[in-house]
Design brief:
heterodimer; A: mainly beta; 4-stranded antiparallel β-sheet; 11 strands; B: mainly beta; 12 strands; globular
Chain lengths: 115, 112
Amino acid sequence: KAGVTQTPRYLIKTRGQQVTLSCSPISGHRSVSWYQQTPGQGLQFLFEYFSETQRNKGNFPGRFSGRQFSNSRSEMNVSTLELGDSALYLCASARSLAPSGETQYFGPGTRLLVL
Amino acid sequence: GDSVTQMEGPVTLSEEAFLTINCTYTATGYPSLFWYVQYPGEGLQLLLKATKADDKGSNKGFEATYRKETTSFHLEKGSVQVSDSAVYFCALTPNRDDKIIFGKGTRLHILP
């Protein structure tokens, strides 16, 4: 079956703009998580959605937000972009919010460059 | 808080060498432990996992054993190949929720 897909794959924006990234999970998966990957900070958890509700949130400012639709697809929005938001944004899906150990499957990521 | 510490790279080895990438963790309770691999230009792929103490995860010749007494989950492979060149991430999920906590990653270069 098809894996996690993310669009767009690459994006260039300027400071102050906003951006929306999209993630389509594996069919049947209801949990979607977002991560930011940078050389300096590594992989950092942004938030997780399950059944259209945010279930977990990492330590990011309110400029980072997300949502999940009834078909489990998710979008992440970053407003008022800053240079430091340049990163690879990864989306991961899982079947459910099962107890610890549920496997997450990652998409290829969206690489965002803020100029 | 919960955290993962793994050896910093890059690690450079010759083909067919033995590989060990160290990973230790700090967590309350009984976390699940994972190794993910990221090939150039791609997202992360789950390599192996272990959900309780003394479990051994294995895949593609890689192994890691969940050692609660030493809070470690070291990744090993007996004979590496050039195609194993990638970044390897150790990670855990606390037993109270599913938020994954990643280590900083270890870049592995295998020379032919």
